[in-house]
Each structure stands twice: as C-alpha cells, then as structure tokens.
Amino acid sequence: MKWSINEALSLVSRRYRFLLRSWARESSLDIGERLHATIITTGVAGAPATFLHNALLQFYASCGCTRQARRVFDEIPHSHKDTVDWTTLMGCLVRHDMSDEALLMFVRMRRCGVKPDEVTLVCLFGGCARLGDLAVGLQGHGCMVKMGYGGVLKACNAGMDMYSKCGLIGEAKRVFDEMKGRSVVSWTVILDGVVRLEGVKNGRVVFDEMPERNEVAWTIMITGYVDCGFSQESFSLAREMICEWVHAYALKRKEKELNIMVGTALVDMYAKCGRIHVAHKFFKKMPQRNVVAWNAMLSGLAMHGLGRTALDMFPQMFKEAKPDDVTFTSVLSACSHAGLVDHGCFYFRNLESLYGTTPKMEHYACMVDLLGRAGRLEEAEVLVRKMPIRPNEVVLGSLLGSCSIHGKLQLGERLLQELVQLDPQNTEYHILLSNMYALAGKQNRANSLRQVLKKRGVRKVPGMSSIHVGSQVHRFSAGDKSHPQTREIYSMLDEMIRRLRLAGYSPNTASQIFAGCDSLEDDAVEEEEKELAVISHSEKLAICFGFISTRPGFPLYIFKNLRICQDCHSAIKIVSKIYDREIVIRDRNRFHCFKEGSCSCSDYW
User: Three-class SS of residue 505?
Assistant: First the structure.
C-alpha cells in the first residue's frame, strides 16, 4: 500500500499527539521533551494543520513548564490558536503564581477577537482572586453575564471566590443567591468567605444550612473556631464530623479511606489546638497514611517549632506517599521556625532537580522567612529580587518582620513603600516600622508615622487573647476591664507581677509608644505609663484569669491574634516556672509552649 505525503504526515502527527496527551497525564517531562526534539528535527511540526504545537502547549502546561509553554504558544500561528490554547496558557500561569501575566493574556485574547469560554473565566477569576485584582474581576463578571455564562456552575463558583478574596462578601452572596443550582463547592466557597470576612458565628449559620458538607467545609469551620480560641467548639465539631464520616463510609464499606480521613482529621485538629504530642500519637497509630495525613503532621510539627522532629520523619514519608507542594512548604516552614538554615537551603535548592517540584510563592516566602530570622537579610533580599514571579505582600511582609527583629531600618523603609502599593489598608507594616523607629531612638519619626495612620482614619488591629474555661470562651484586650471578674483578675495580675519582679523580671517597654514628651518629668511619667500598658497586655490578663479559674498545675491554652511581644514572651517563661504551669500560646505565626522556665521556640521566633 502506497501512502501519500499528507496521509503519512497526518498519521504520524496523530500518533505524536496521542503520545503527548498520555505523557501529559503522567507529567513525563523528559520523554516529552525528547519527542519535542524529534518533532523539530524531522520537520513534522512545520505544517500548522498537524496541530502538534497545540498538543505541545497542552503537554508543557500540564507539566508546569510555564517558560516552554509560552514559547510554544508564541510559535502557533494566530489562525490556529483557539480558545482552548489561550485558556491552557492562562491556567498554567495562574497555577504557577504568574497571575498578573495571566490577566495580561486575557486582555490580549480579547483584543485578538477570541471568545472566552467558561473555563477561561474560571482561570481569570482564579488569577484575580490570587492578586486581589477587583477591577479586572469586575470586567470578567460583566463578560460572564454578557456571554450567557451566568448560569454555569464552575464560573459562578470562581466568581464568588474572586469577590470573597477581594473582600466583597456582599457581591459573593449576590452571585450565590442568583445561582439556580448550587453544588457543595458553591456552599464551601461562600462559607469560607463568610468565616473570613464576617466571623465564625455567621459562618456557622451558613454551615448549618449546607445540604451537604465535604471535608473542606468541615476544615474551614474547625479552623475558624480554633483561630478564634473556641477550642471546645472545635472539638465538638470534630466529633460530629467523625461521626458523619463513620456513618457514610460504613455504608460504603471503605474502611481504609475511613481510617485515613478520620486519622488525618484528628491529627490536624489536635495540632491546631496545641496538643501536638497527642496529634503525633494518633499519627503513629494510623494503619495507612497518605500525602494529606503526612502534610497535616509535618505542618503541625512546623507550627510548634519541632523542626528537627519534622526533618527526622520526612525521609519516612517517601515509603508511604509522594511529597507535593504543600509538603515542602511545611518542611521549609519547619526549618524556618527551628532555625535550621542549612537544611532549609538544601531542600529549597533541590526542590526542582531532586524532588520534581517547581518553587512557588509559598516556598519563596518560607525561604525569605528562614534567611531573615537567621539575620541573613542581604541573602533574603537578593532572593526576593531574583524571584521569577513578582513577590506578594506575604514575602515582602516577612522580610520587613525580619528587619524589625534585626534593626535593619533602611531596608525596612524601602519595603514599606512597596508594601503600601500592594496593600494600602494593612496597618501592621506601619506599626512594625514605627516600632523600629522607637527601638532605634527615633521617637519623633515613630510618632509621626502613627499620626499619619490616625489622620487617614486607619486604626491598628487590637491585640486579643482568648482562653477557654468552663465551656465558655473569655476574650481579653490590653488593659481590658470589661470582664465580670475584673477585680479578681487584676488582683491576680498584681500578685503575679510582684513575684515576677522578685524573680528578676523588668518590663520591656522599648517598642511601647506614647506621643508627646517635653521634659524629664514627662519622660518619667511616660515610662510609668508604658510599664502599666505592657504589664496589662491581653495574654497576661488571660493567664491571670486562667490561674483563678482552674486548679493548680492545670495547663492553659491561649490563642492570640497577633505576634506575641518580647516582654510577654520573657515574662511567661518565668511565670511557667514560678507557678509550675504549662502555658501554650498560639500567636498568629506559631505555637509557644512555656514550661519550667523555657519556651519550645528556644527564643527563636
């Protein structure tokens, strides 16, 4: 049988496309690259009608190779680029933290007259959600309605998530209310937004209305309760979740999946509630463990500063599960919290070559935090400036925090200018810099910075500490006198401070700022005011309430919404020894377990 050139070309190209699709599903990059080389050298791809460049684009995008995917995309003639090609590249860019470039691709796509489909809109909304770009998100929503995709479930879910991540929960609810059909994903998206933006109380109303709940919804609620210090509610909800899973999986007779899901939920819950040793015990008893279970355990160890334990366990993971992006975020975070700089650098350097994982924004954030905590700020800044993706506020904010710890004022000033552009409403960065000015003896500049915030009507987020006693959550702010047992709490505080002073404690008022001093007498009065303010910080009040409300020796678990200050950290170490109490405090970054005069963080936080 004699084949014509066109028939042979069609047959070969069809076979190549099939192979590329197969290897894309398996992320077999090396084999695919060799085939790409064969396609180039044989000249098979020369005819656009073979659509091999389109198949190569799909292949590289599936493997996460943004640079190669873009190069192949640019080689496809405009006449042979369709909506799928544009959407494929957009999705690849969004997944690999290049959302700003993905949005530019959408603009180019529209200018070229290519009509987006519902998948394009999902990618667009995902990019807007990651960047917090409401302007483009609004255009995307308008496009969705005009093109008749307002009733498409996935597009609506992505639109809701975009509005939620941009802080417009009202708009997210409007999309939700207008949906004719809702999936469990729709409910979960709106639940996540309500918990983050309206609080766990309103979130519970949505949660109770859900006709069906997945593990993500349960996790959102349990984590929401834990973050607010509602440990009793989180345990209660976890028990309810496990009962539901047991019932559902008993019907399906999938004992293996049940063991993994229940075990993982328990590990995650106990770790987030400060009971890391209990979490570790449950983890070791699990008969089967998948990557999610391992991630929960490693993340918990990282939060508690048990970096060496996490690194000792990590090699065992390869026998049971393949590490993913989340795994390496937990590993790098564990290195950061424990000060294991060399180990962290090793894992980061070998992410791609040894472990096949492309570094993402979260990995860069961990590395900047790791280097910054260790005082290697020059290296951290070089890493930020050389990032292949634009650093977000988490990366820059982490570097600013390290500047605050190590007194790098000039770098801190530069970073603040960049952070203001990214998130002008975030007061934390201004407060950090004003504290740096105060510590550097530049009181006037510290006061001036806070006055600017005051004139703009921007208020500092108040520090709040919560403690769960007697099936009820008790919250305290600095200097709080609204609690029914205020007299007893402050009496206990006076007694505690007296014993602390006898043990050598002296209040650290370095970063406490009060404006306006004109004389030495004023300075003395101001210093006294600063001491009083520091002494009555929210976590000290919560501890005193715990002392008068629980039996001697009973461990205290306290949750704080901000980073614990140096004075409270030093004071609570002494308190744990004087009163022979284990005091576990979770601040916004990690857990601190104070026991017998020391902290689990080894003063490295």
Answer: coil
End-to-end CA distance of the chain: 75
Nearest to 384 by CA among 409, 419, 353: 419
- Whole-angstrom CA distances from 49 to 10, 33, 53, 410, 438 are 9, 21, 10, 58, 68
For the stretch 60-108, pLDDT in tens is 888 888 888 888 898 888 878 889 999 999 999 998 888 889 999 998 9
Tokens, residue 435: 């504290």
What's the rounded Cα separation, in Å, for the pair 282 and 264?
A: 9
Tokens found for residue 74:
């640019």
Radius of gyration of the chain (CA): 28
* Section 275-303 average pLDDT: 91
**278: exposed, middle or buried (Cβ count in 10 Å: 0-12, 13-18, 19+):** middle
More confident residue, 9 or 283: 283
pLDDT score of 519 more than 50 = no
Contact status, residue 155 vs residue 118, Cβ threshold 8 Å: yes
Q: Which of 304, 391, 227 is nearest to 605 (CA)?
A: 304
Confidence of residue 423 (pLDDT cuts 50, 70, 90): confident
Question: Residue 593, SS3?
Answer: strand
The Cα 73–Cα 67 span in angstroms is 10
Listed residue (10, 39, 42, 44) closest to 23, CA to CA: 39
> Residue 550 has what DSSP assignment?
S
| Phi, psi angles (nearest 5°) of residue 352 | -85, -45
pLDDT of residue 213: 82
The DSSP result for 218-249, as a single string, is: HHHHHHHHHHTT-HHHHHHHHHHHHHHHHHHH
pLDDT tens, 540-596?
999 999 999 999 989 999 989 888 888 899 999 999 999 999 999 988 888 999 999
The beta strands (E) that lie in 415-491 are given as 464-469, 472-477
- In this structure, the number of other CB atoms found within 10 A of the CB of residue 174 comes to 12
Q: How far apart (Å, rounded) are the C-alpha atoms in residues 283 and 321?
A: 14
pLDDT-derived band of residue 11, with 50, 70 and 90 as boundaries? low
Q: Mean pLDDT throughout 338-342?
A: 91
Q: d(Cα 514, Cα 511) in Å, to the nearest integer?
A: 10
CA angle (502 as vertex; 498, 503 as ends), nearest 5: 115
pTM strictly above 0.90? no
Q: Residues 384, 415: contact at Cβ < 8 Å? A: no
The single-letter DSSP state of residue 598 is E
* Residue-level pLDDT at 50: 59
Whether 402 contacts 380, CB under 8 Å: yes
Sheet of 556-560: strand order equals 472-477, 464-469, 556-560, 583-586, 591-595, 598-599
Instruction: List strand residue ranges (DSSP E) for 430-518, in order.
Output: 464-469, 472-477
Phi and psi dihedrals of 504, rounded to 5? 105, 5
Q: What is the rounded average pLDDT for all residues in the chain? A: 83
Q: Look at residue 3 and tell me whether its pLDDT is greater than 50.
A: no
- Cβ atoms < 10 Å from Cβ of 84: 14
**Distance between CA atoms of residues 318 and 328, nearest Å:** 13
More confident residue, 440 or 527: 440
